[in-house]
Amino acid sequence: MLTRLSDQTHNLLIDGQRVGALSGRTFETINPATGEVLAKVAEAGVEDIDAAVRSARAAFEGPWKHMRASERGQLMLKLAELIRRDEDELVNLESLDSGKPVSAIRRQDLPAVLDTLTYYAGMADKINGQVIPARTDALTYTVREPLGVVAAIIPWNFPLMIGMWKIAPALACGCTVVLKPAEITPLTALKIGELALEAGFPAGVLNVVPGFGKVAGQALVDHADVDKITFTGSPVVGRQILQGASGNLKRVTLELGGKSANIIFPDADLDAAVKAAGSGIFFNTGQVCSAGSRILAHESVYDEVVQRLAARAESTRIGNPLESSTAMGPLVSEVQMKRVLNYIEIGRNEGASLVTGGSRHGDVGYFVKPTVFANVEHRMRISQEEIFGPVATVIKFTDEADALRLANGTVYSLAAGVWSADIGRVHRFARELKAGTVWVNTYGPTDIRLPWGGSRDSGFGREHGDAAIENFTEQKVVWIQTGK
To answer: Does 2-256 carry CATH code 2.170.190.11?
Structure first.
């Protein structure tokens, strides 16, 4: 079934029905491992977005609003059961659509989807207000109410996982959702929408509208009946969303880019540090917002770090993402491949030393070899700009002050890592690094129970944990006069 996806049009999901775009327009998605057409998908236009928002509003004001919170939680648990049932199909769809290795999806993405869904299912009936004794002659308390219709615009690097990061807390809070997946990776979002209907979610609670950002995404941002935009993607688009959301003062949460520093001191466990540094930049072919793309190594261990990292890059198994032994798949698209190869050329021209990689892998699909640059200067573009590919830049530092200056010297502030056996040092860096997450003697793990996000060009607001409840609810004060 999954090898003949192009035999049918994968329609939009609006108001509980799979429907074609009102314009009749479709677009093709490409298998990044082969460059061949994978599927034909209905292209949501402005009219389709309006229909989806109207459906979400009707569901919010109707059956979803009047459902007990515990019942919402039960529906979410049922959805989790169905995801487990169809795990193989979802894993293969995600791999075909995005180029992610099936081994990585089974190890990280799918478990994270289930953990997110079950975590917020358990939270649905625990979203509480407070009694606040403001006056002796009144009963004063707060309640948390769902914001309403949420537009969730998700990226192509983790379609399943980031999609559920937004869907699950919004539904737990009692919101309804219009989900716009990236146009190059729409298939698992549509499958999740179908499973939600099978689980018993009322029509309109979760609508899925694949389409292009300039049309479908902009229509969601402009729509007067959308109460909240939650977006993960580039800083450029994030700024556009902020401007558009001002029309009706929509609430906005943005999780944007990164250029994260992974700092290795001479007293670090170099085996562990370099292994994690390799994973931190080559995992998911470097298409990770928190990728440790800037590896800062102390001058006394710099050459050894470069040598070991290059060896890890050269031993990385690149290949068919559907094979369980594959460690690194292709970049998601030809556009992205050309972007990464262009940055590699920029690095060469800037004077950085290409240690390994630096070229396309094979001539079929969008594969790029894991690449390591040494002798990188902080001012270089490959040190400052988000490449979003398997390109490691290794930068030398002299002391703590130098490392901190380099680490904080970008417009991003999503994440950072510190490797050292000195407890005082790691505490100092945890305090001084401008990052939403600081990993110490590890790099990259996340958990739905911990807030996630950054500032500056990495966005604002936090996802996960209790923070997500803030994203999708607002407080109401109730004042009941009890005396004079």
So the answer is: no
